[in-house]
Design goal:
heterodimer; A: 293 residues; alpha/beta; 6 helices; 62% helix; elongated; B: 134 residues; alpha+beta; 5-stranded mixed β-sheet; 5-stranded antiparallel β-sheet; 29% helix
Chain lengths: 293, 134
């Protein structure tokens, strides 16, 4: 049976924890708003890019000179997984669900006898995957110093990926991140970025029968558009991730605050009960002592 | 009186311009190009420079773009810029940073083709700076 002082200490410490989780929740809410705006304002660009790319891809499809970033290397032996996670924990299942998706994917590929290489963006994913897939991890990009995600960060990652691709380091690249649906729903997603996935871009706009002209040639345009598309896709993933992270943290911290509140209630009740029990006990001792006389 | 057509300028981080315009002058890779309504469909690579948007009210919006793509379709025009800033927000320092980056890229470039591309970029940025200075 804990003493009254123990109980008082316990209540005080849970209260302190609750204050922290409450503060974290509010910080996450404020950051979420910013991250959400950033993710939303990046959408038009990515959408237009998809559209333009789909139009171009349709016109060079099947051509033997189609760029490798679009058509692939014709092989799928070596897979590159780009796993984007957060730099910090305390955000519920956010990091672990992305890591789990990536790990399952990697294990499935390894079981098929494929080679897997992993680039981790974000410390948490690196920590989670390091235990099992240490040998496969070829690079770890640390964005802890970045306060807000900028295009230049995505561009840096994209440059690494493209350099590796040019050197023949892999055949297929898949991007893992969490799509932001709402504060309570973040969906871990796997998206193939190399070869570029243009099937989902929808209807190619009709040019009204007019002949599309390209300056310079289509292939030169594709050659500079495709690498940029890789950077844009990574940028979008990072922004969606940032919004998801804050959303996940907000709901995790909301839960933690509520749990702490419940615990405080229970502990207070226990404290009051044992205090009353003590008083009753003392009274009984005094009365029975007086009666014995 | 020119017929207005829809025009959009998007950068990876934001939508900079969206609306009906009379004419757009873009720094295409092979020289400046003016796009009016009914222009034949064209897709072109942009070099660093100034995009001038004529809204038809006697006012023009000037935006700096650092490379990108212009896509002209019968139903309007879209510019996908690598980076875009309204000229009013553009300072000399910003350009200087870009020039500095381009210079570094030039020094780090491996191979003739990369070296050529980097030096071209550097020249283009210097041109933009001199245009802005006047």
């Amino acid at each position: 049976m804990p003493s009254l002082k123990d109980l008082r200490n316990r209540i005080a410490s849970v209260k302190a924890t609750q204050k922290i989780t409450k503060a974290m929740q509010m910080v996450a809410a404020a950051k979420l708003r910013r991250a959400q705006t950033a993710a939303e304002s990046a959408r038009p660009y990515a959408e237009r890019m998809d559209k333009v790319l789909a139009g171009l891809a349709a016109s060079v499809a099947g051509s033997p000179t189609a760029p490798r970033l679009l058509a692939g290397t014709g092989d799928d032996k070596v897979h590159l997984l780009i796993v984007c996670t957060a730099e910090r924990g305390l955000c519920g299942a956010f990091n672990s669900s992305i890591a789990r998706l990536a790990r399952d994917h990697a294990n499935a590929l390894l079981a098929q006898g494929k080679t897997v290489k992993i680039i981790c963006v974000g410390k948490k994913g690196y920590d989670a995957l390091r235990r099992q897939l240490e040998k496969q991890i070829i690079e770890f990009v640390d964005l802890r110093a970045a306060r807000t995600i900028g295009y230049e960060h995505a561009d840096g990652v994209a440059k690494t990926v493209l350099k590796l691709f040019d050197e023949g380091g892999f055949d297929v690249a898949t991007l893992f991140y969490s799509r932001f649906r709402s504060v309570i729903a973040q969906i871990p997603t796997a998206q193939r970025i190399i070869p570029a996935d243009v099937s989902g871009a929808g209807e190619v706009a009709d040019t009204g029968g007019a002949v599309y002209s390209y300056e310079p040639g289509e292939e030169e345009i594709l050659a500079s558009l495709l690498p940029q598309n890789v950077a844009v896709q990574i940028y979008r993933a990072l922004l969606e991730n940032a919004a998801s992270e804050q959303g996940a943290r907000m709901s995790a911290m909301d839960n933690a605050t509520r749990n702490a509140g419940e615990m405080i209630k229970k502990q207070t009740q226990l404290y009051n009960r044992s205090r009353q029990a003590m008083i009753t006990k003392e009274l009984i001792e005094i009365i029975s002592g007086a009666e014995a006389l | 009186m020119a017929t207005p057509f829809p025009f959009e300028l998007v950068a990876p981080d934001r939508l900079l311009f969206s609306g009906n315009v009379d004419a757009v002058i873009v720094p295409a890779i092979d020289g400046e190009m003016t796009v009016l309504a009914g222009h034949s469909p064209v897709m072109t690579v942009l070099k660093p420079g100034i995009v001038i948007v004529d809204e038809g009210k006697g006012t023009a919006v000037r935006l700096f773009v650092r490379g990108g793509f212009a896509d002209v379709r019968p139903d309007g025009m879209t510019i996908l810029a690598e980076q875009a800033v309204p000229v009013e927000e553009l300072h000399d320092e910003l350009i200087d940073i870009q020039i500095e980056n381009a210079r570094k890229a030039y020094e780090d470039a491996q191979g003739d083709a990369a070296k050529m591309a980097a030096s071209e970029r550097l020249t283009q940025l210097r041109e933009v700076k001199s245009v802005l200075a006047n």
